Amino acid sequence: AQSVTQLGSHVSVSEGALVLLRCNYSSSVPPYLFWYVQYPNQGLQLLLKYTTGATLVKGINGFEAEFKKSETSFHLTKPSAHMSDAAEYFCAVSDNNDYKLSFGAGTTVTVRA
Amino acid sequence: DTAVSQTPKYLVTQMGNDKSIKCEQNLGHDTMYWYKQDSKKFLKIMFSYNNKELIINETVPNRFSPKSPDKAHLNLHINSLELGDSAVYFCASSQDARVQNIQYFGAGTRLSVL
Question: Are the C-beta atoms of A43 and B4 separated by less than 8 Å?
């Protein structure tokens, strides 16, 4: 079965600074990888996903992530944080051996003015 | 027009009661899900239906019973509520059951069992 580890339950960045959220996965077959964002009191929405093809994936709101098979990682970055990026971020993995999406424990991002 | 809507948004009830949460999607999707998010924000799949047929049934107490009257609706009924059932429950939908599909989430139902 696949699983996800998100390193760092809480990340605090200054406005305009780089945002880096770490995600490592385990999967016995090629994975499908996702980043979802949850704003306060809302449901999750997709930031970006990797299924096949180009390993650098661009998403909404200036976020991007790179699939690195050798490192079993799918870290999320944004060059310049905005106050509106304050939210909970979830990395998730699935694969063709399973019908379900497995989520990491989440990383809370706070942005300092 | 909300794509995935859940009702109620908040539910406060006593231990031992029975309650239901309703979910509707207007995206024309075939597959719907229920997730539980605990107090540490950990999100775990509970059930999934594809075209009204149960395809995922995780290790969930049988006090929880999902029902899908049609593919646009997936309701969750909980019998004999316990303190540990307090959580946020999210409904989601996707185009079909392929795991690489995007899932669209409702805003959640915050259940508090007293």
Answer: yes
Contact A88 B41 (CB under 8 A): yes
Torsion, Cα B89 B53 B58 A1, to 10 degrees, reads: -120
CA distance B38 to B14: 18
Across A63-72, b (16+ Cβ under 10 Å) vs e yields bbbebeeeee
pLDDT digits (tens, 9 = 90+) for A37-92: 999 888 999 999 999 889 999 999 999 999 999 999 999 999 999 999 999 999 99
Residue B90: its chain A contacts at CB < 8 A? 43-44
Which chain A residue shows the shortest CA-CA distance from B98? A99
Which of A96, A101, A16 has the alpha carbon at shortest distance from B48? A101
| Cβ–Cβ contact B55 with A under 8 A | yes
Residue type, B15: M
Residue B1's pLDDT is: 66
Residue showing tokens 């669209």: B104
Q: How many CB atoms lie within 10 A of CB A106?
A: 23
Mean pLDDT of chain A: 93
DSSP string, A32-100: EEEEEEE-TTS-EEEEEEE-SS-SEEE-GGG-EEEEEGGGTEEEEEESS--GGG-EEEEEEEE-TT-SS
Chain B CB contacts of A96 under 8 Å are 99
Single-letter amino acid code for the residue at A69: K
